[in-house]
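User: Structure with adenosine monophosphate, tokens only please.
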Amino acid sequence: MRLLIMGAPGAGKGTQAALIKNEYKIAHISTGDMFRYHMSNNTPLGIEAHKYIDHGNLVPDELTIQMVYERLQEDDLANGFLLDGFPRNLNQAVALDDILKKLNIKLDCVLNITVDDNLLINRITGRRTCTKCGASYHVVSNKPKVEGICDVCGSTLVQRKDDTEETIKTRLDVYYKQTKPVLDYYEKTGIVKNVFGIGNIDEIFNNVKDVLGEIK
Ligand code: AMP
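Assistant:
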């Protein structure tokens, strides 16, 4: 199964992506996670990406597209993949079409998680993320068992630098101006499936499974 997951920042893409990955045993390719890995290891790509990410802006396309191109040729994708956070603008969507054509693969579905705008800021500013495994929590609606500690791996939870109220405004602006048109682009291909992203995590995931069941 080859999927793409979309939704505004705070829509719950990362949470659903982790569940999808486990359920369907497919690779989760998150460009945000890949950049964070590079930043925490101070690689040349990480040092460059840092300049953009901390301000809520997109990393330049040439760096991002090359990173995804290389990732899509790795050998853990036999069962398929879930692309999360890419493409983020129309240029990247066209580049992804080219990459998939070259690799002779097709997307099965674009899963779009929808959430009302007024909930997004609250979700993002309350989000806490594991420094080690990337698991995501919320200070009110999805608390870890022990405050500040990841249920999955026991590492420390932090607020991502780009999850502050200031940065989120830029990220939402970037989403509406640059990423929303990508959804319109895929709507024309007929492979977009919408899932309402409000409610408890398991309920949303059940809806996701219903939608994915239709394409299997
Ligand atoms: P995310 O974890 O998907 O919210 O991504 C965090 C940040 O990484 C974004 O705000 C961007 O700065 C950067 N980023 C992630 N994916 C992309 C992409 N496809 N193109 C450009 N920048 C990206």
